[in-house]
Design goal:
Layout: H1 2-5, H2 9-76, H3 79-101, H4 111-135, H5 139-227, H6 242-249
């Protein structure tokens, strides 16, 4: 550290300030990186996981409402009232299915999704046959389709939707847990780095101020001795900075 002792005091102070600025910059870059990571994780959760779960809930709700219309149509035999409701539900289900498909990961396992899609297609086909029978005025056939085809297919469809929903929720929970873990790690690392930066900055400041203070203390003691008429004081300059040159001249 001889080279550091010989630096002018101004340079030593500049070195201390520069070290503090460097540590601040490192902490800022670290915080920025962790915030970006957190933003990407939250974006994936909000933009992919949550919309998928919501879309499945919508599909299930629309299918349940469609089943209600089927039973009401068979019971009331009022085709004119329920035909537009069937059409509205078909449109709503198609929209929700499209919404879910738009968030599918191309690399993910699609086994459950394909199972659900086939079950929904089967249910909608049975519902269409029921509506065709009602349109022809054959409500006895419509009732048979409702009982023998639509009802069991609805159970199969709901089971497939529930299985896919459970898988998506499990994936959502895993992403939330990973995000929480990353937050805790970032927080702990930031606390440790902040404490380390403060400690290093304080240590550097203490080291520099002590170097200067010791030299000035020696100069003050010699000056006091000279003022008292004692010229036998020994003094040793250990640096080539301003304080060292002052001690050397004395």
């Amino acid at each position: 550290m001889r080279w550091f002792n010989d630096l002018p005091i101004t340079y030593k102070l500049l070195a201390s300030v520069s070290l503090a600025a460097l540590l601040t910059l490192v902490l800022s870059l670290f915080s920025f990186q962790r915030l970006n990571d957190a933003h990407r994780q939250i974006g994936a959760i909000a933009g992919e996981d949550i919309p998928k779960v919501q879309a499945l809930g919508d599909i299930r709700g629309y299918l349940g409402e469609l089943r209600t219309y089927e039973l009401a149509l068979v019971s009331t035999q009022n085709f004119g009232e329920y035909e537009p409701r069937f059409a509205a539900m078909d449109t709503a289900i198609a929209g929700a299915r499209e919404q879910y498909a738009s968030h599918l990961d191309p690399d993910a396992d699609r086994t459950r999704y394909e199972s659900m899609r086939g079950a929904i297609d089967g249910y909608l086909a049975a519902s269409a046959r029921l509506l065709d029978a009602a349109r022809a005025g054959d409500y006895e056939a419509a009732a048979a389709i409702s009982s023998d085809e639509s009802r069991p297919q609805r159970r199969v469809t709901f089971a497939a939707i529930d299985a896919l929903t459970a898988a998506d929720r499990e994936h959502l929970d895993a992403d939330l847990a990973a995000s929480e873990a990353a937050f805790v790690q970032s927080r702990n690392a930031l606390v440790v780095l902040t404490l380390a930066a403060v400690g290093i900055a304080l240590g550097a400041g203490f080291f520099i101020s002590r170097r200067i203070g010791v030299a000035l203390g020696e100069a003050t003691a010699v000056s006091r001795a000279i003022a008292e008429g004692r010229f036998d004081s020994r003094i040793e300059a250990t640096s080539r900075d301003e304080t060292g040159r002052l001690l050397e001249s004395m």
